[in-house]
Amino acid sequence: MEEKYIELNTFLKIKGLANSGGEAKNRIRNEEVKVNGEIETRNKRKLHIGDKIEIAGKRFFLKEEEIK
Q1: 3 vs 20, which has greater pLDDT?
Q2: Domains of the chain in sequence order
Q3: Does residue 66 register a pLDDT over 70?
Q4: Residue 12 in contact with residue 33, Cβ under 8 Å?
Q5: Tens of pLDDT along 11-59?
Q6: Which of 2, 33, 56, 66 sits most deeply, having the most CB atoms within 10 A of its CB?
Q7: What is the maximum span of the chain, computed from C-alpha positions, in angstroms?
Q8: Residues with Cβ within 8 Å of residue 1, at least 6 apart in sequence
Q9: Which residue has the higher pLDDT, 67 or 44?
């Protein structure tokens, strides 16, 4: 069975929280993003269904339909 995930930088672009891969990378490296309550600095962090992502005062829960 194949593991379903989306990378954090891709998620930020899809949600319009970063206009480019470079901007997503900078936001992540500048410790602006939390995953499941902890600051995440890995650009390609694998996100799974149900993960909670926080950035700029916004919260998201990863849904199955957001994973390609």
Answers
A1: 20
A2: 6-66 (3.10.290.10)
A3: yes
A4: yes
A5: 999 999 999 999 999 999 999 999 999 999 999 999 999 999 999 999 9
A6: 33
A7: 35
A8: none
A9: 44
The full length of the chain comes to 68
Which residue reads 């672009």 in tokens?
13
For 12-49, the three-class secondary structure string (H helix, E strand, C coil) is HHHCCCCCCHHHHHHHHHCCCEEECCEECCCCCCEECC
**How does DSSP classify residue 65?**
G
Give the separation between CA 33 and CA 1, rounded to whole angstroms.
30
Instruction: State the burial class of residue 38 (Cβ atoms within 10 Å of its Cβ: 0-12, 13-18, 19+).
Output: exposed
Confidence of residue 1 (pLDDT cuts 50, 70, 90): low
Q: How far is CA 14 from CA 1, 2, 52, in A?
A: 25, 22, 15
